[in-house]
Amino acid sequence: MTASPSSAAQAARERLASRLVDLRKTAGLRAIEVAARCGWHKSKVSRIENGRTLPSDADIRAWCRACGADEQIPDLVAATRTVDEMYVEWKRIHRTGIRRRQETDVPLYDRTGLFRVYCSNVVPGLLQTHGYAEALLGTISEFQGTPNDASEAASARLARSRVIFEGRHRFVLLVEETVLRYRIGSPAVAAGQLGYLLEVMSLPAVAFGVIPFTATRTLWPVETFMIFDDERVQVETLSAEINITAPAEVGLYAKAFGELHRMAVYGARARARIAAAIDALG
């Protein structure tokens, strides 16, 4: 069993803290001396060095100057921002509503050549209809207690998904068969979403796979994740979005995707499962 993405984020924070400790020791300073030079309480240095507090850009600059290591500032500031972006709570992301979050991903979607997407719980965002997206995003806003702009956010999600039709990108999208049966929205919304899957899976750039209920599992159902080329993985948990860029960890998700890909069915066999889900709506 692999470590959770949140554990990976904490490990990245601890690696940054270790680099700061190394700077202090190389300078021959005690923690209390760094605190005094920075004008901080000594407990702040302890929290930073133990990975409990993520230092701000200003903290990094003060620390490096106290240790006579100004040349380390750009690299450590960049590392701090990477750690800060790695694990971000949904309530923070959605604090002004969900629409803005859909729009901020547009540059990432535009520059990605190959999308690999696995969803164990909902239809992939790239393939959602407006009705399905609105129902889903409204539920998310209500659960999180954040501003509900579900209709506008759904429109922004569909605008972001235009990459499906541009012809400059390739998509491999996998879902567990259970996803086809979950009732997100009304029966009419569910039927419209399933019908749309039948349409979009015929696009030349799209490979859509369904992992059957009866598949012999070589990998258990895992968290929903997206791989953007070989550069970044976005993982969705109940509480947060995790962004992974470390090559070894990206490779781990690529390996998992390969296992899931081999368990899925495509083409006529996938269509049959979608049709069965439509029939089950009555």
Structure description:
Residues 20-76 form the HTH cro/C1-type domain. It comes from Streptomyces millisiae. This is Helix-turn-helix transcriptional regulator. InterPro entries: Cro/C1-type_HTH, DUF5753, Lambda_DNA-bd_dom_sf. Pfam families: DUF5753 (PF19054), HTH_31 (PF13560). The chain is α/β, with parallel strands linked by helices. It has two domains: 5-87, lambda repressor-like DNA-binding domains (434 Repressor (Amino-terminal Domain)); 94-280, Endonuclease, Chain A (2-Layer Sandwich), CATH 3.30.870.10. It is 55% helix and 13% strand. It is built from 14 helices and seven strands. A seven-stranded mixed sheet has the order 1-7-6-5-2-3-4. Strand 6 and strand 7 (240-244) form a beta hairpin. Helix 9 (130-144) packs across helix 10. The longest helix has 22 residues, at 5-26. The radius of gyration is 22 Å and the shape is elongated. The two termini are 40 Å apart.
